[in-house]
Design a protein that fits this description.
mainly beta, 5% helix
């Protein structure tokens, strides 16, 4: 058997590469190296990020549950296990869990993250009709 260790004590850089959150969120930093940040994330029902953007873009791989990703331009996608989301460099967006279900995903973020304002409850609720 061969095990390749992707994480080291130095790989976690808390607070520098992901947006603040609203609700119950658990992040596990898998890798942080040279502007590349990989996180596993668990969002409880209704939990979500604040509006944010990544200078090099972000890839989200949905692992379980049901979530949502919304962009400043008004695009909204309900995402489920197996879905892959790409936020282009500089694209303002937020993501989180459905109101009645958790979501887990792996995110790959490139470059710096700019945190913007919190997503208010009314805006989050409006996504779900």
């Amino acid at each position: 058997m061969q095990v390749t260790r992707g994480r080291t004590d130095e790989s976690a850089v808390p607070g520098t590469h992901y947006a603040p959150h609203t609700g119950d969120v658990h992040l596990d930093s898998v890798l942080a190296a040279d502007g590349l940040f990989v996180n596993d994330a668990y969002y409880a029902a209704c939990a979500r990020t604040h509006w944010h953007r990544h200078s090099g873009g972000q890839l989200i791989l949905v692992r379980s549950g049901v979530g949502v990703v919304a962009t400043r331009s008004g695009e909204v996608a309900v995402v489920r296990v197996g879905d892959v989301v790409h936020a282009a460099p500089g694209e303002e967006h937020w993501h989180g869990a459905a109101p009645d279900c958790f979501v887990t995903y792996t995110s790959v973020s490139l470059g710096s993250t700019d945190t913007l304002e919190e997503v208010p409850g009314e805006e989050y609720d409006g996504v779900w009709g």
